[in-house]
Amino acid sequence: MNIGESILKMLQDEIPEIEYTRYIKQLEFCERDSRSNYALFYAPNPLIMNWIKNRYANKIAYLFELKNGVRPTVSIALKSQKKDPLKTAPAISNSENIKQSMLNPSYTFENFVAGSSNQFAYAAAKNVSEKPGSVYNPLFIYGGVGLGKTHLMQAVGNVLQIQGKIVIYTSVEQFLNDFTSNLRNNTMDRFQDKYRKCDVLLIDDIQFLSKKIQTQEEFFHTFETLRNEKKQIIMTADKHPKQIAGLEERLRSRFEWGLVADIQPPELETKIAIIKKKCEINRVQLDNDVINYIATIIDSNAREIEGILSKLHAYAQLMHQVITIEFTKNVLKEQLQEKRDNVTIDLIMKMVSKKLNVKPSEIRSKSRSRNIVYSRRVAIYLARELTPMSMPQLAQYFGMKDHTAVSHTMKKINELLKNDEDFKVKIEELTNQIMAPESA
Ligand code: ADP
Ligand code: MG
Using H for helix, E for strand and C for coil, what is the string for 153-198? Predict the structure, then answer.
């Protein structure tokens, strides 16, 4: 049994028998053309093809990820269009190929959660998808790892591709590889055909152009040609064009000609919504408790989410257990431990003082003013929860009489957590920021 077949077999246990026989069983895995990041299946007719695309492509990708650790783009093609191996075209040429394989079909606007941290970039991308080549050209999206830049860029690509436009999604590395190999083979016309005749060019992680003089030169010409013909260009990077070192001035200025939009780390609320969305897409059922808990554990990088969901899902199936919060805690203990090792009392003091607007020295003073007492209690609670400090150690640090004072504080806070929803959210937010200080 090849990998594709065993993935389909896994699906058999999870879906109604009739669905399996009618649709899934009809699929044929194409081992020859599949790669770790690309899985190709053939369907006998368009009905089955579309049914699988809509209902199961995500699930299949997810099962591959469970098994291989890599989530592939799943492509369902018609069996009648199966290519004869002897006639398979070498390298690029036909845009059908490029079209099929490059975009992740689940990176859509519907699957993207918009929140205040990404609202601007989301709106810009949406606009571009409605009026490509005219509103913001180029669109430049920048921000940290795992914040959804590639997703958003491909969402535009998916919209336009469905309308029949030729969309190329590429990395700087691939652009460079294409360039050098075509140069070597004396086939620069092919290269230019590919990159200058498309309708939409998506280039991911453009910061890697830094210091690559010859690629910059070639990219400059591609850029000019496309933009003059009002073809849409979208780029992403980890920083603003101004901050990318080793970039020719003429490129830098052009990158800012259209619109530069940033994506910030998501707040707790958006993170929760993203987890819910991922659960929905992957058909994993989790209680709100568990979702909230995961949201406080992960830092700003949404890439972690899918990993956590597959881990939970796999363990739960293996051990025939429901996913309770206790179960989640156990599964994620290691993940958590690594982070906790980085949490110090100093960090907690810094975050609490920032959030509640009280100086660290005041928190540690003997002041009885209401706001300061409140901040002190919060800091003690978080230190007890997030660091290995014992109650006597905490009493000493906060200048309290003895550990009973600390224990009294813990009791007070636990009562508040039980009865005051706003307070609970505040504590969750703080925990979150302390566990992932870079997103604060
Ligand atoms: P980046 O390119 O910024 O490093 P990606 O676009 O690769 O990040 O996103 C990483 C993962 O997180 C993807 O699975 C993506 O779908 C998901 N993700 C990130 N932000 C969001 C969001 N706002 N809504 C839904 N999914 C998101
Ligand atoms: Mg990316």
Answer: HHHHHHHHHHCCCCEEEEEHHHHHHHHHHHHHCCCHHHHHHHHHCC
What tokens appear for 419 in the block?
């009865």
pLDDT in tens, 345-366: 999 999 999 999 999 999 999 9
**What letters, b where the CB count within 10 A reaches 16 and e where it falls short, cover 366-386?**
eeeeeebebbbbbbbbbbbeb
Tell whether the torsion through CA atoms of 337, 341, 344 and 350 is positive or negative: negative
Name the closest ligand to CA 301: 1
Round to whole Å and give the CA distance between 70 and 13.
Answer: 22
Question: Ligand 1 atom closest to Cα of 306?
Answer: 14
Indicate whether residue 147 lines ligand 1 (CB < 6 A): yes
Tell me the per-residue pLDDT of 172-198, one tens digit each, with 9 for 90 and over.
888 988 899 999 999 999 999 889 989
Between 282 and 361, residue with greater pLDDT: 361
Q: Looking at the chain, how many residues does it have?
A: 440
pTM, entire model: 0.61
Phi and psi for 74 in degrees, rounded to 5?
-100, 125
Site to substitute for ligand 1 among 103, 142, 147, 238, most atoms within 8 A of C-beta: 147
For the Cβ of 151 lying below 6 angstroms from any atom of ligand 1, the answer is yes
Q: Rounded distance, CA 104 to CA 331, Å?
A: 29
